[in-house]
Amino acid sequence: MCPPDEIDPQELQAREEMTGEWPGQFLLDELHLAEMRAIIRAHLDGGSTLAAVAREMGINPHTLGDFVRGVVLHGENRDKVANWCEAKPRPRVSAELVAVGVLAAWSSKLHMRQVRADIAKAVLLAYSTRRIRLPRDVLDALSAP
Fold first, then answer.
1. CA–CA gap between residue 14 and residue 25 (Å, rounded)
2. How far is 125 from 142, CA to CA, in rounded Å?
3. Mean pLDDT, residues 84-107 taken together
4. Cβ(103)–Cβ(145) under 8 Å?
5. 112-134 pLDDT, tens per residue?
6. Is 129 exposed, middle or buried (0-12, 13-18, 19+ CB in 10 A)?
7. Helices 24-45 and 61-68 sit at what angle, rounded to 10 degrees?
8. How does pLDDT run across 5-45, given as a tens digit for each residue?
């Protein structure tokens, strides 16, 4: 028997078999969400408006804005965004940005943006305090989660 704070490997395997999920699926899902956000940001940076992109997708601009800021979409809205992004070139997404998303996953929609920013700031502070220089692309990704 495992201590209370540890997961029994047999229990974990049983959960995976029942749900059809494996622990790495959560990470892959967050990577896919980060890629979709990057595709949308690229269109916005290219001159498209949030309202125009949302209209193309068939979703509410407010919902799309929340998604771009880090809120997770579910159901039909997620499917619409995924379908719109499918034919677009896949961007390179920072692993650090994906990690921030994974760590912020338990935040409510109301606090998601600030939780992501707080996690990124904590990472930047930890490296800065120890005088460890991060590559420019990592700094850029963590400066704007």
1. 16
2. 11
3. 87
4. no
5. 889 989 999 999 999 999 999 98
6. exposed
7. 120
8. 455 666 656 656 666 666 678 788 889 999 999 999 999 99
Long-range contacts of 79-86 (CB under 8 A, 24+ apart): 81/36, 81/40, 81/57, 82/32, 82/36, 83/57, 84/53, 84/56, 84/57, 85/35, 85/36, 85/39, 85/40
0.85 cut: is pTM over it? no
* Residues belonging to the chain: 145
